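User: Some background: our group keeps a shared notebook of sequences we're curious about, and every so often someone picks one and asks for a predicted structure to add to the entry. Today it's my turn. The entry only has the sequence so far, pasted here. Could you supply the structure so I can complete it?
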Amino acid sequence: FLLDGDNVRHGLNKDLGFTDADRIENIRRVGEVAKLMTDVGLIVITAFISPFRSERQMVCDMIAPGEFFEVFVDTPLSVAEERDVKGLYAKARSGQLKNFTGIDSPYEAPETPEIHIDTTTMSVDEAAEVVDGGSRACGEGGRCPGTPLAEFWATRGIRTLAPVHWEADLGDGGGSGAGADWWNPEDPEER
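Assistant: Of course. Here's the predicted structure to add to the notebook entry:
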């Protein structure tokens, strides 16, 4: 299941703004929803700008050991501004938008993400391959001790995840880092 920042802010979190406290509460609520879903056996992919290490750790602590994988979609601010189709960075720079990540609100990059996607050096297809688990094990000191994502998928009866749609919606300030819809080609109902 995919939880996306833009969609969640239109419903569950529509009462929240972009202050530090509201950002923390946004991610806490998403973490609680993701926990409920993983408790019943779903694989949950979340696509959110979560600017603070402490809030990411808070969600990690909610989830069962070995079930939380931090994916850092790393896009330099200058590149994010170039890709900004919504014009949000220009509005933030002019003062029309307050508490905008990277402009007047801080971003604390992950120190030991399980996956690090450098959008300046990887294509969308290469990034999808990494997320699929085909080429990377969890990072040193990461929260999944030495288990590649491919093995994680396999323990759930999924041999591969094939990206149907991968959207590099990076740096738009709208709350999402990247989105993906996944299907299991081994499941006849999903072909």
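Suggested note for the entry: The helical segments are 5-10, 20-39, 53-62, 77-82, 88-93, 124-132, 149-154. The CA atoms of residues 86 and 172 lie 7 Å apart.
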